[in-house]
Design a protein that fits this description.
This protein has 381 residues and is an alpha+beta fold. It has helices at 26-41, 66-73, 91-105, 135-141, 149-159, 164-183, 213-216, 249-254, 280-291, 309-318, 331-334, 338-356, and strands at 5-11, 15-16, 50-54, 82-85, 110-118, 194-196, 199-201, 238-247, 261-270, 300-303, 360-367, 371-379. Strands 1, 2, 3, 4, 5, 8, 9, 10, 11 and 12 form a ten-stranded mixed beta sheet that branches. A two-stranded antiparallel sheet has the order 6-7. The chain is globular.
């Protein structure tokens, strides 16, 4: 089987809800990162076999195969196809997985994978305004429980004995680490500026410098009157997009490109849909088993910060080194543009691996409905 390699990875800055990216249509935001890949690599877009694009709320601006709209908005040749995939929050990580799998299988030679979400323009949950998505069979199986991620996060915190103070400490740490990374220019090589209203937007704008446990303690619980989950220890509603160019080592050489990393191993797994956010734990176990690696071999872990209990429960169950977890901060600090987050997370993973010369990196995402992706990549340069 052939190897799949990543030759470049780019993302927009992450915009806060109603912020700098709010005026930009999802297709146009996606087109910006597609064309950035072309500008940076010199690849002829007409030679791209497929664009695999993640997006969660596929309604309104993000309906009708937004990946295909992105290709057209970018001005790429009409013969370049695209598909939009939805594995909830892991959609663009799934897009990277599918792109790599197709390259490894010999189906494609050159693929762009990534995703987008403009939550300012397409509100969270707006695709569920009518109907019952689960159906009577699912509701009967779970005694009519109405699945809710916030309640799932509360249940996880209770199960692992995670106090509000502990969750808020983690959240404040996310902001501090993200601020340090931004100040050190860690993301500069991957961020594609986006101009709106004549202003060039270059930095993740959700960051709240100086966030402390004391300031977070003043926030009211979001899901239970006596709960521990609130806006400050949850991921932010955001806008953003990211894209990666995936190919074979041989094709990269033909194009005069030096691969950054090899797609090593991927896995998906399911978990209880009531708690729903625990999928990264079995997904991590599965990907490590398939890879033949141990957690000790992995230099950095990116576990998406959908809610603070998710990475903390993952740490408790895996026994991983806390110092290797989300060293650049995460979605609590800078945002979680759903369908774009998996690809954004991979740009962050690559940035850390290259900066510290770490051979292996692992990322995993919890996903609505109780599934999760886990991916291991290997640094090549």
């Amino acid at each position: 089987m052939r190897d799949a390699v990543i030759v470049d990875a780019v993302r927009t800055p992450i915009g806060k809800r109603g912020g700098s990216l709010a005026p930009v249509h999802a297709a146009d935001l996606s087109a910006r990162v597609l064309n950035a890949l072309v500008e940076r690599t010199g690849v002829d877009p007409g030679t791209v076999d497929d664009v695999v694009w993640g997006c969660v709320t596929q309604i309104g601006d993000q309906s009708s195969n937004v990946g295909r709209s992105a290709v057209l908005a970018a001005g790429w040749p009409e013969h370049v196809p695209a598909v939009t995939v939805n594995r909830a929050c892991g959609s663009s990580q799934q897009a990277v997985d599918q792109a790599a799998h197709a390259v490894m299988a010999g189906q494609y030679d050159l693929v762009v994978a990534g995703g987008v979400e403009t939550m300012s323009r397409v509100p969270l949950g707006s695709h569920r305004t009518t109907g019952q998505p689960y159906g009577p069979g699912v509701l009967a199986r779970y005694d009519g429980f109405e699945f809710h991620q916030g309640i799932g996060a509360e249940l996880i915190a209770e199960r692992w004995g995670l106090t509000r103070a502990r969750l808020d400490e983690f959240a404040a740490g996310s902001h501090a680490k993200a601020a340090a990374a931004i100040d050190a220019g860690v993301f500069d090589d991957h961020i594609v500026p986006v101009e709106t209203d004549g202003i060039k937007f270059t930095v993740d704008e959700g960051l709240r410098r100086g966030t402390s446990v004391e300031t977070l303690a003043r926030l009211k619980p979001s899901f239970k009157e006596d709960g521990v989950i609130h806006a400050g220890n949850s991921s932010q509603i955001s806008d953003g997009a990211a894209a990666l160019l995936v190919t074979t080592p041989e094709r990269a050489r033909e194009l005069g490109l030096a691969p950054i990393a090899r797609y090593h191993t991927g896995a998906v797994s399911g978990a209880d849909p009531i708690t729903m956010l625990l999928g990264p734990i079995p997904a991590t176990e599965k990907v490590l088993r398939r890879s033949g690696l141990s957690l000790a071999d992995i230099g950095v872990y990116e576990v998406n910060e959908a809610f603070a209990p998710v990475p903390l429960a993952w740490l408790a169950e895996t026994g991983a080194d806390p110092g290797r977890l989300n060293p650049l901060g995460g979605a609590i600090a800078v945002g979680h543009p759903l369908g774009g987050s998996g690809a954004i997370l991979m740009t962050r993973l690559l940035a850390r691996m290259r900066r510290e010369n770490l051979r292996y990196g692992l990322q995993t995402m919890c996903e609505g409905g109780g599934t999760a992706n886990a991916t291991i990549i290997e640094l090549l340069r």
